[in-house]
Design a protein that fits this description.
Blueprint: H1 2-12, E1 16-20, E2 26-29, H2 31-39, H3 44-47, H4 53-56, H5 61-71, E3 78-83, E4 92-101, E5 107-116, H6 118-132, E6 140-141, H7 142-159, E7 162-170, H8 173-180, H9 182-200, E8 205-210, E9 213-219, H10 223-238, E10 241-244, E11 247-250, E12 253-261, H11 266-282, E13 288-292
Parallel strand pairs: 6-8, 12-13
Antiparallel strand pairs: 1-2, 1-5, 3-4, 4-5, 7-9, 7-12, 8-9, 10-11
Helix pairs in contact: 8-9, 9-10
Keywords: Nucleotidyltransferase, Transferase
EC number: 2.7.7.65
InterPro entries: Diguanylate_Cyclase, GGDEF_dom, Nucleotide_cyclase, PAS, PAS-like_dom_sf, PAS_4, Rev_trsase/Diguanyl_cyclase
């Protein structure tokens, strides 16, 4: 009776549970373990009662070592978080391994259970994305851009490669907000963001620095590449139309950029691109100015 009740309790758990003996042989699995094995293309011969779990996970060095350390009493506990995605679904699990003792404190093996933490991981990923993106445009934010620029400069320095950045600023944006309202202004920011992503999708990292100012980081791109990308973006924006009630709104941008080596001073690089942007504005806006720091 007690064994039947114990079995029913373990089978009622949503978490996958198995017991292994000191050699790693599986001596018990609950219904959730069986269901998971069958639903994920496995079979009970390889991961059911009688199979050796150490053999099952022998190619996963960290997991194999962790379970072995518990069985040999070198560790009192082992845990490991891992992804288990399917073609249609993202999933994550948290694996825990603890010694299995009898009432006389003799060690009989280990308890292994897997907890589905997909909801937790999806929430974590969403929070991480919120921390690095601009909520209006979904582009990266200034904080992320600064961090990424620093990392890419270090990488370019190690590989002795060039890189480039572009700064993009909407011309007369205040007038757009004052004339058509902030909702149309926000719509213009989003449309510009989509266009930037489309033009640079193969090579760039786009960010909204704030207001109507944007930045594009272009690893391993020289001044010639930069000019082509900037002119392409400028011409695409010139053809962009935005509905504002019964009117059609056209916007223009000023673009400044620089190409540089990874061992250059980050502050100097940003200031050079910024000065190029304001040169474009002083010259009448709606144009590109590129400064090659490598020449």
């Amino acid at each position: 009776m007690e064994n039947g009740i114990s079995r029913a309790i373990l089978d009622s758990l949503r978490d996958q549970l198995c017991l292994i003996d000191p050699s790693g042989k599986i001596i018990f699995v609950n219904q959730a373990w069986i269901n998971a094995a069958l639903n994920n293309g496995g079979d009970l011969e390889s991961c059911g009662i009688g199979a050796n779990y150490l053999e099952v996970c022998k190619e996963e060095e960290e997991i194999h070592t962790g379970i072995s350390s518990v069985l040999s009493r070198e560790s009192d506990y082992f845990a490991n978080e891992y992804p288990c995605h399917t073609p249609d679904t993202q999933r994550w699990f948290y694996m825990q391994v603890a010694p299995l003792y009898t009432n006389d404190q003799g060690m009989k093996g280990a308890v292994i259970w897997h907890v589905d933490i997909t909801e937790k991981k999806l929430l974590e990923n969403k929070l991480k994305m919120y921390a690095v993106t601009d909520p209006l445009t979904s582009l990266y934010n200034r904080r992320f851009f600064d961090q990424k620029l620093k990392k890419e400069m270090l990488r370019a320095k190690r590989r002795k490669r060039l890189m480039s950045i572009l700064l993009v600023d909407i011309d007369h944006f205040k007038e757009i907000n004052d004339t058509f309202g902030h909702s149309i202004g926000d719509h213009a920011l989003r449309e510009l963001s989509f266009l930037m992503l489309e033009v640079t999708k193969e090579c760039g990292i786009c960010a909204r620095l704030g207001g109507d100012e944007f930045a594009i980081l272009l690893p391993e791109r020289n001044a010639s590449d930069l000019s082509i990308i900037a002119e392409t973006l400028l011409n695409r924006i010139r053809r962009l139309t935005i509905r504002a009630g019964k009117e059609t709104l056209h916007i223009s941008v000023s673009i400044g950029g620089t190409s540089f080596k990874g061992d250059m001073n980050k502050k100097q690089v940003v200031e050079t691109a910024d000065e190029a942007l304001y040169t474009a504005k002083r010259r009448g806006k709606n144009q590109v100015v590129i400064v090659d720091l490598n020449s």
